[in-house]
Amino acid sequence: MAVTAFWLVRLRNLFAVVMLTGIYSLFAAALYLVMDAVDVAFTEAAVGAGISTVLMLGTLSLTTDKEKVHKKPSLMALVLVLMTGGVLVYGTFDMPRYGDINAPIHQHVANRYIEKSGDEVGPPNMVTSVLASYRGYDTLGETAVVFTAAVGVLVIIGRSKGTFMPSSSQARRRREDERQEQEDTPS
Fold first, then answer.
1. CA 54 → CA 13, 36, 120, 157, 175, distances in Å?
2. What CA–CA distances, in Å, run from 85 to 48, 81, 88, 175?
3. What is the pTM of this model?
4. 3-state secondary structure of 25
5. Are 60 and 18 within 8 A, CB to CB?
């Protein structure tokens, strides 16, 4: 994953960046799967690698595939990123170690879910009872996000090539040039 992230920062070809972003999402999904977070892995694979990649490819078809080169890198942006990263790393120091049996999550509600979820909720499958009942609103929110992303993809893919869609000025000029060439060409 670190190599993929390194090349994401270094590349200037946006098509290659989109492909590497999809690959990074697949690596993240595999990592979630190894950590026994199957629902998160499925969502990452579907949204991160699937729908997001299609959306970015659709955007690239309406714009250019080269990144605009900035003349001078901003030192303030680098400082802000390093400070944010430092705060995020500092926030992890208080977390229990991965797999620690004495972690609070294993001492509070996990036992209740294991012992009583079938009687309280109904489904014999513990994962289904947690996702459908205990975390019902959270699951509804995740479903709404995935549905909204799917509708967005369908809207972008469903547009005919000649319709106007706000995009970069370069892409707009390219479309105007193509229209002008079609008008100038005798039938």
1. 17, 27, 41, 9, 22
2. 22, 6, 5, 41
3. 0.52
4. helix
5. yes
Distance separating alpha carbons of residues 140 and 143, to the nearest angstrom? 5
The domain segmentation of the chain, as residue ranges, is 1-67, 114-151
Q: What are the pLDDT tens digits along the chain (187 aa)?
A: 888 888 888 888 888 888 999 999 999 999 988 887 777 888 888 888 888 888 888 888 877 777 777 777 788 988 999 999 999 999 999 888 887 888 887 777 777 777 887 788 877 777 777 777 777 788 788 888 888 887 887 777 666 555 555 555 666 677 788 788 777 777 6
Question: Facing residues of 13 across strands?
Answer: 66
Cα 59 off chain centre by: 15
Name the residue among 125, 133, 170, 146 with its Cα closest to residue 48.
146
Query: Which of the 8 DSSP states describes residue 96?
Result: P
Rounded CA separation 39/29 (Å): 10
Report residue 144 as tokens: 């709404």
Other Cβ atoms within 10 Å of 107 Cβ, number: 10
Minimal CA–CA distance to 173: which of 99, 74, 62, 81? 62
